[in-house]
UniProtKB/TrEMBL annotation:
CDD domains: NAT_SF
GO molecular function: acyltransferase activity, transferring groups other than amino-acyl groups
N-acetyltransferase domain mapped to chain residues: 76-213
Protein name in UniProt: N-acetyltransferase domain-containing protein
Native species: Gordonia sihwensis NBRC 108236
């Protein structure tokens, strides 16, 4: 089901209003990643922990439902409330967040280990990871995909960041043939480490990065 006719609003997701947006944001993440229902229970505590990390920031993408769509149960778990929502028909269809990377973080240690395994000298790996923003999550609900929402979320999130670079990890995809890879390549993200397997996840991942600030990427493709 698509929301092609609905305008999209991108706005910050304040930490002190997390009780309004966290459940629909995690539901968006679970749906976009095709994880089994029930995975939310394991992710919510982790997202709450991330909110407290230095340099944390988040943005959401909101769509306003038509009178007919507002009756569909498909969107019930995406609803948000005032003051975050502008109306009772506005739902969350995308989320992006991240924070300043630090050596005591699990993701940082995973990347550092991967760089060493790939032959990077420890001193060079530490210097590379000295000053970066970790793009932790960027997800768009299937109902809102294909409208440039991911690019708007990403550029909003990275605007004005003080770090020298942004790093992320994303699942490997044959031929890089999905929207996430297309977005990252279009915005100039380059390979940092490929085909890495995180502890506890059998899928191969790629680490990508680029300097900050982002250039003017122009309007998102439709």
């Amino acid at each position: 089901m698509s929301l092609d006719a609905s305008p999209i609003r991108v706005a910050p997701l304040p930490a002190d209003l997390a009780h309004l947006w966290l459940d629909p944001a995690v539901h968006t993440y679970i749906t976009a990643m095709h994880y089994p229902r029930g995975s939310e229970a394991h992710r919510l505590p982790l997202w709450r922990d991330h909110i407290a990390r230095p340099g944390w920031s988040a943005f959401g993408a909101f769509a306003t439902l038509s009178a007919l769509d507002s009756l569909r149960p498909t969107y019930s778990r995406l609803r948000v409330r005032a003051p975050l929502a502008l109306s009772d028909r506005e739902i969350l269809v995308g989320v992006a967040y991240g924070y300043r990377g630090a050596p005591d973080q699990w993701w940082n240690r995973q990347l550092y280990s991967g760089l060493l395994q790939a032959g990077t000298r420890p001193a060079d790996a530490r210097e590379f990871m000295r000053d970066y923003f970790e793009l932790t999550e960027l997800h768009v609900h299937p109902a809102g995909q294909g409208r440039g929402v991911g690019q708007r979320l990403l550029t909003s999130l990275l605007s004005g960041r003080p770090e020298s670079k942004v790093l992320l990890s994303t699942p490997e995809v044959q031929g890089e043939a999905n929207r996430a890879w297309g977005l990252y390549r279009r915005l100039g993200f380059e390979d940092v480490l490929r085909h890495f397997t995180f502890a506890g996840d059998a899928r191969p991942f790629a680490f990508l990065g680029r300097p900050l600030p982002l250039p003017d990427a122009g309007p998102p493709p439709r």
